[in-house]
Write a structure and sequence with these properties.
The chain has seven helices and six strands. With about 210 residues, it is of the alpha/beta class. Its EC number is 3.1.3.-.
Length: about 210
Amino acid sequence: MSAPPSSPGGVSTRQPAVFLDRDGTINEQMGYINHISRFHLLPGVGQAIRRLNEYGLPVLVVTNQSGLARGYFPESLLDEVHAEMRRQLALQGAHIDGLYICPHHPEAKEERFRLTCTCRKPRTGLLEQAAAERHLDLPRSYVVGDRWSDLRCGAAVGATTILVLTGYGRGDAQYIGPTQTVQPDFVAEDLQTAVQWILDRENNKQG
């Protein structure tokens, strides 16, 4: 494994990032988005991501999309949905810096997607891929999502984890969370609240 990039003084130049789940965190939780008409950004998401952009924290989306593996929709629709996500964010002056997708499932209809992979959350493959490609410091990063699988994924790489109560979050917090060993570092009403907490924390570090 190669060493992290460093400045002339020997200090690592790896930076923290904010990893966002997609469904239930960025857009309304619909189960499976099997038509473009089912994609709707949650209120305040564009503003929240724009604040991260302006602060200089990379924003990466990491998402399980087993609906592709199960044959519920084609790859072309997944591409269309993500193009629409980027378009709607751009209208609010926001952007994501990367998009990482796990299309696998052990019971996939198509053989090419039928495997037990290392990238399906709560496994950490997507985060590790992003960190390697973009020189990110995972222990200094944040993982935000509405499911305990997001929290377990983030905790496994030493990241700070945030549960949002949008999507499945409120139900998971009430019915799943009390039995879990892994607990979020912060519980946020929505992505806007999560981003405010992240920025406050980063500013306190610098202070």
